[in-house]
Amino acid sequence: MKKKHRLVVVGFRKNKKGDTYPLTAPTGRRQSIIVAQRFKSVLPEVPHPSPVDLLQVTPHIADEDLQSAQSQAAVVEISRFLGTYLSGFPDAAVYPNATGAEEYSCEEDGTIHVPEWGKYQVGVQGLNKWRIYRGGLWHETQHLKYSPKDLWTYYADALEKDVSNIVEDRRIESAGVKWHTGYLPEKIYSDAYAYAIRPSVEDLWNRYEQAQNDFVAGNLSREHVDTALFDVRREALLQNVIGGFQKGKLPQAEQARIDDVSKTVIKSIGQLNETVEANGWSPRDSSDSKKIMDGVDKIVQYAISSLSLKTLAKNKNFSDQMDWDQTFSPEVSRDARGGSSQEAHRQKVQADIDEFFGKKRREQQDKQGQDSGQGEGQKKKDDKQGSGLSQGKDRKKKKGEKEGSSSGQQGKEGKEGGKAGSGNGAGQHPTAEELDAAQNGSADIIAEFKNIQQGTGFETPEGLNRSWEPVIASLPTGSYDDTVFKRDMQKRMRDWHSGRKVEVEKSGQILNVGAFVSSHGKKSFYRIEQKSIKGQKYVFLLDFSVSQKSREDAYKKAMINTVETLAGVGGKMAVFVFGGTENGQSGFLRVKTFEQGLWKPSDSGRLAGLTASLGYTPTGTAYSKLTSYIAKHRPQYFVTVTDGSPSDRTVTQDKVRELKRKTKMVAFGIPESASNEDREDMAQTLKDFRYDKTFVATVDEIPTKIVDLIAPVDT
Ligand SMILES: [Zn+2]
Hints:
Blueprint: E1 8-14, E2 20-25, H1 51-54, H2 69-87, E3 93-97, E4 105-106, E5 111-115, H3 126-146, H4 151-154, H5 158-179, H6 184-197, H7 201-216, H8 222-243, H9 252-279, H10 286-306, H11 309-312, H12 330-337, H13 342-385, H14 409-417, H15 432-440, H16 443-454, E6 469-470, H17 483-492, H18 494-498, E7 500-505, E8 510-511, H19 513-518, E9 525-530, E10 537-543, H20 552-568, E11 572-580, E12 586-592, H21 601-608, H22 619-624, H23 627-633, E13 637-642, H24 649-659, E14 664-669, H25 676-687, E15 693-696, H26 702-710
Parallel strand pairs: 3-5, 6-12, 10-11, 10-13, 13-14, 14-15
Antiparallel strand pairs: 1-2, 4-5, 7-9, 8-9, 11-12
Bound molecules: zinc ion (ZN).
Zinc ion binds at residues 1, 139, 143, 169, 324-325.
């Protein structure tokens, strides 16, 4: 696990060839993305969209990597869900790193960074690609769940930090699989992939021997030889301890040493996990966290001293060290691929995965045969001699397993004894059934992948033009939360929350004796007024042209808080954003449609993830692309928020006239500045389009004005 700078994902658009690609931002608080030229007042007319344009279909992505916007949006949504579900951490939030950073990492506050699905090119495809992607995410969630909070600060020494990563990665995965034994097949598949992708220790050993020869010949320093041996031992330890399988063989004495140390490390990790569990130590509690880290440290120091790592690592540069988490990154896949074609690389990876499973199956059969042949006495001995890991204890014998004719009841009993091993995966001996699941994928993961393929939840709803593509970006919304406004609204909207307002007046439905007396008969009745926008529909169309850039954060904050407030009192929200380029190319994005149900925090996250990037304001084109949808839903209000003149004036005028027959067309114009002159300018601009209502409002004024419009609160 590495601490990462927060990265910002921003949206996506189409290039000239019609490929979709994400808009990405560099690290930092505020990023400028593709800042197109600033077109504003002098705008050429964009031609009225042709019927062909209106029917423009999302380019169909035929390859099985499924990088359509729908699929990508589905991956973000599923990952978000998995982030909290698998970590048990309510604040966990998963963000795809769209900015080129391809690694998996997580932060103390629950932020998990995953690679971006659309760019996730690894050694396997289709369902298996999802399994690897998900495995990387699972690993980070287990860090959130089990890693002590002072993991990041405990070590200063690079070697200790590196070895502790190995120990901790194994520790959290073991704990995770023990907690959810059904996860074992997926863990095994990740191990198989790691086996295919990580370097062969045999190759590293050959490199070490070569270094030795060079040293003898006087061409290389002693330190280089040491570093080469360090690389062998570190990789062998990592593979045996976390993945449970070593790629390539080592000379006997060296292998024995590695096996011995790995076994003890695994055993000690198992014991540490038992202690943590027995004492109920919480990784979030400072003093518990320290105790866990002290336990980890004992194992770390043991591994370092028994493999002489300190001496060997004297000249080691740890900055380019590949840890377990990185195994599943596209970057490492590219490195492993080297100069070969993607196809050749995939074949090689598959061959290695098959080899891994071949070994696993032989091991499983051996174990089964051994157990059934040796009987009870030997079984107990096996347990004692094993790695000492207890993870297997909870695993239950499965009824009705499919088994070969050679293994009958005896074989089943034998399996029960097969608990401890020399570091297989999470320290468990999988059953034949689990190995099948590991090779083919578990049912729920297959179902998830089907949802990804179909872009479930992000299909273009009926009646909506297909050029409105889902937003695949997502950002934390915390910084956009306007608590003052929200609190204010809570108070103001009390009547709207309850759906009615009770007023004491001169006449009404219910006589109030107390009020009658105290007001000398002037106010003696309760009047109950229905106040509700529950079930009513509102469409928001937000201009994200680049002129919004300078106030983008304030703009997003205003819109997020407005929409959340209205959704909070029962309004149904559909939110669209747009911007355009000279040649009519879109950013037409749907943040949320009516069909997606209630407004969710993830919808705010999508709104937060957007950035203004396109130079034009094709308002009329956006209206054209929404006409059928508006006709279908007949929203109460269609609210346009813009900061300038549409780049397609004639179309805009036509469309406002047309849409006014189906809904109330309202426009909010954000003036250049708060000055009277700019306000008047904006008022004049909007007047030309003959909306039902127009408002000129600075970004800060927008939330209150929109809420006033939709759910007016009388004073
Ligand atoms: Zn890790």
